[in-house]
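ERR on first pass: missing label on line 2. Operator R.T. fixed the label and resubmitted. Corrected input:
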Amino acid sequence: MSTKPKSRWARSAEDAEYEARQKKEKEEKRRKKALKLQEEEEKKKALLAATTTSQTAETNDNDDDAASSSSRPSKRRKLTPEPASNSSSATLLRFDVGTWKPSRSVDNYDKLNDIEEGTYGWVARATELATGRVVALKRLKLEAGDPNGLPVTGLREIQILKNCRHRNVVAMEEVVVGNDVSKPDNSIFLVLEFVEHDLKSILQDMPEPFLSSEVKRLLLQLTSGVAYLHQNYILHRDLKTSNLLLSNRGLLKIADFGMARYVGDPRPKLTQLVVTLWYRAPELLLGTRTYDAAVDMWSVGCIMGELITREPLLQGSNEVDQISKVFELCGVPTEDSWPGFRRLPNARSLRLPKQSPLASGSVIRARFPNLTAAGASLLNSLLALDPEKRPSAKEMLEHEYFRQDPKPKPESLFPTFPSKAGQERRRRHEPDAPVRGQAVALGDVDFSGIFQGRDKEERGAGFSLRMV
Amino acid sequence: MSSLLANPLATPSQLYRRASSATLPRDVDEAVYFATQCLTQAAGRLLQLPQSVTAQANVLLARSWLGESPMAHEFSDVSAATIYLVSKLGPLPRSPRDVSNVYAYLSSANSALFPSGELPKDDPRAYYQTEADYYAFQQRMLGLEARILQSLSFDTQVSLPHPLAITYLQTLDFLSQPRTTVSLRTIQYLNTALLSPQMLYITHQPNALATAAIYNAARDLGAKMPEHEWWEVFDVDREELGFLVVAMRSVEGWMQKLKEDFPGFGNNMLKRSVVEDELHRRGLQVGNGDNAPRDEEDEVMRMMDSR
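pass 2 clean. output:
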């Protein structure tokens, strides 16, 4: 027993099997030995009335072994004998993250049909041949002859998805590769769990908007997924309804981590070229380089508005139009409402209307007349121009809005929708996520006319945008 | 996410397969491994990458080392591809051009990595790269980048023991030693262990490596350690600790022996052609490892010895 070399890598299944076999054999031996010892002991006992301490120790030992052979799980023994006082050895924490092996071939999957093809890649529905399970295959978009090799965004997406385990984040099962292994532009596919719908298509096709109980459940799921990401230092940076998947059982999953990245502390230099235009936070539009999780919360706000109305909330046609739409809805920033915004790169030359906050404030409450006071206050805080004022995902989960009637609808009671992904390609009428390259400077933009005539007309009309 | 504290480890069957299908004699294989890891460290310094990045490259190199024969590609190309990949994923990406220049310099006659006795006189012509040289290097490096990723199924996460070691030292109140002295010694053991041909970083978890390095540092400095089994607090058992302590201490002696066995080692960049010459000298064939069928039992014993 004491000479048994301990298997240092006893972690894999075959190892466990081997160990089990060995253990069995050992126990056989041990039992025999114990029996023999017992006989000897009895003889000795007959001879000697008193027992020596070493014999007592041995007997204890044997008792111990006998117990272990019956039911106790295997316990590793120390090589060096320990003083009897602390013989109960501490249980040591063991991490088991497995091992690594080469990627499998994409030939293990059979393609069923295309789901979508966008700027960032191609997605198809497929079955795994061995199991018949349906999965989504996403091909990483590779530029042939890219002087930098595999795109870092794709590698980040893989690393992040590998590390994420949450019911509201799409699960990645493995990465498979095409058969041209030696070529640097060999295809790489992410094998993702297949989810029937994306929220964008559902919103486009549904005849009636979601009930407010349904909106609440969807928002809760989205927010708990986002909270998980932020807690693990991940920024998604491209939250939008077309990147949110919804299963037939009402389960929402965040997908498409092509823009996501880990942010440590201190923060690395980040690009401002993130988030699809319609969901992009004002600080990004104004060119900040030091943003944080609040950019995702702005997108959550935009998604909340979209879930209620079925229409994207802020549909700008370009960066300048987008920021003017933001100001139109949320009001014009002032040093009070957003301290320091003037120091952002694109804000220096902005010309903003000098009006009373009353006339140029937020109109969110008016845009969503059916929203409860709690709902409006949540949306207002998510769409706060000052990122500091937006709630964190964790704070949002505690918001009054989710506790008020109507209560969030249980997922199991969600309606089902005819699957698009099963049959046809998804349609898109929205801008794509930004592509790496030169950031657009807003230039000198005059927003001073943005609220002209707001008091005269109802809303939306009568502002002009002038590029100087 | 336990992956912040733990690494995937090599399985016994992976290690066995690697040992039994080796294309090189064991001592040569280890020498090549050591030389490639040293080269990676040197390149990391010249690329001005922090050790946290370079050490990750060392670990990824060790992982991919298990998968493929070292003779399949030029050693320096594998080293370059790994460090390029790790830097790209981290906060300080380096361009292929930078990496190319650094490796060209390191393999030149001017290289400070291989001191030839007299001070190297700086002769830029020795490491100047033509556009064609660069293009060829870049193609090889990017091809290997994809290859390495595939052999690791794209898992590039590496948890290093260095930050853990500092945390442990804090818990131990730096063993009543000057903080910098004991920390430095500990980190030195961890960095040396990166080069060990026993591949300690892919057979042991960071917490065990950190604990063993602290133990060694304490022994070197004559620091008083707690009397009870303090390593159990860091989830290391006595046997594993004992093995790692010896393994970390033996790297230096092993390096000395390497220099005696291979007199020319460390005089210039180790290339595949050098290894092939060495094999010819020994009368061994190059390429396939099954020319001399080895006794499986022997091999297992050897592996046990090496642990």
